[in-house]
Amino acid sequence: MSHRAPRRLLLPLLALGVIATQAPGLLATPASATPRQAVRAGAPGHPLARFTDQEPDWKRCGADIPARLRCATLTVPLDHRSPGGATIDLAISRIAAGDPGKRRGVLLSNPGGPGGPGLYLPLYLAEKMPKSVTDRYDLIGFDPRGIGRSAPVNCGLTTAERQWPRTFRPFGESVARVRTIADKCRAKAGGTLAHITTRNTARDMDVLRAALGEKKISYFGVSYGTALGAVYTQLFPGRADRFVLDSAIDPQRMWREMFRMWAPEVEPAFARWSRWTAAHSATYDLGRTPAQVRARFWRLVERADRDPVVVGDAKLTGTDIRAVLRREFYTVRSAAELVALLRDAAAGEPVPEFPTPPEEDTDNGASALWAVVCGDSAWPRDPGTYLRDSVRDAARHPLFGDFASNIAPCAFWDAPVEPVTRVDNTVGTLILQNEWDSQTPLTAARSMHRALKGSRMVTVDEGEGHGVAYGMAPGPTNRCAQDTATSYLVTGALPGKDVTCRAVPDDGPGTGPAKPVRPAFG
Q: DSSP per residue over 6-58, as a string?
């Protein structure tokens, strides 16, 4: 990420037969080769006509932003069910296709979240995607509604309130904390919150499609972006061209059950890590057998709960250590290095300062996350449900069960104004997935694959990390998976069957420093 602005804005995120072929003649026809009238929502006087008839006024995004990225503002209804009412403005961006003679259409993108801005993502993708892709597509970015420069939601949350809910003990404090978050958001953005949803963002994407004069859109979405892409295919199946979903959400679990999935899924990752670390005992000295490694980790947790481990300015309890390590256990080398560092710190040895994420300038990321996950689907209203689930899941899944089932602000959120979107269609899509993904586990991607019945799935066997293609995750890219995605974007032909790629030595096991972040999907 060589451009400073995109890197600064993307870092907080880093938080998928018959249909496989198309007639050769169709491949040469640009998706945008259609009169502008044909892409409007309807005849003059249609409720959405004043939005779909907009023509973006492209200008330079800023003096410090490369000139090839152009920005504009798009007006959309706050409530798409009532397009004659209030409106909001969305920030959109574009890098024109590199070869007008080869241009097929537009490639929209989303980097994840919920709560991640995407306005500058085209600059990053222009560097990471091969010329065969960037020659054919205008790369389109946008800050989703409620995020970044698109009518941002800010609840006025403190730094502590922006952090993900942790252990349920003491439960009364957890309840008070999340009730305060919900009350603050209602007071600051009550009239807007109900409409900051994945369903409405997908509708915004379709207004953007029409305003760009396109009959269809192609799309590259990562993590939460896979949920957004899937919802678009459900609402507008005839307008989805070539969709690549990288590191997929389970569309049947949006959203509480998707978070709860983290608890059982980390247990096999922890077992795999203990085996790997035992095999490298000469390097890390954390135990010669998997049982010894696991015991060493739990002794560290228990010790930190009695007497926090001091690393730099941080004092880490056992709860803190479990919170940070859940994600790291999926990249075995990174986790081993971090546990060894914490062991040394607990013994009073000098260690490097603990890596921490950059502090966000505003609470927009956290506020938008809650707006989406609470607005997309209804959560249990009874606090006792969360307490019972947390106690049970803590016993079943000791690493993260209490975290994953703990009460969230959604318990005190206003009820969603629309039902959850059920994804079940035959739109052709390509899903990319690492086997060992901490945020969107392999089981989630398989569920997305089943819901999108026209999809093909590329699985990186033993692949580690969240994000597969085009540099969306730290570390080397798996060329097998990325080349499959590139071929699909260029030709429109999905693989004839699902693909398994092998993780090569350059892919992992994961390296690099741990990155403790607010747990979102990325």
A: HHHHHGGG-----TT---HHHHTS-TT-S-GGGGSSSSTT-TTHHHHT-----
Q: Could you tell me if 217 and 414 are in contact, meaning their C-beta atoms sit under 8 angstroms apart?
A: no
Residues 81 and 53: their CA atoms lie apart, in Å, by 18
429 vs 243: CA distance, rounded Å: 5
User: Is the CB of residue 451 less than 8 Å from the CB of residue 249?
Assistant: no
Q: How far apart, in whole angstroms, are the C-alpha atoms of residue 178 and residue 256?
A: 15
List all residues 6 or more positions away from 172 whose beta carbon is below 8 Å from its beta carbon.
none
Question: Which tens digits make up the pLDDT trace of 385-440?
Answer: 999 999 999 999 999 999 999 999 999 999 999 999 999 999 999 999 999 999 99
Closest by Cα among 412, 354, 414, 424 to 383:
412
First to last CA, the chain: 17
Q: How far apart are CA 375 and CA 413, in angstroms?
A: 8
d(CA 343, CA 341): 5
Q: Which residues are catalytic?
A: 223, 437, 466
**Paired tokens of 162:** 């922006």
Sign of the CA dihedral 274, 278, 282, 285? positive
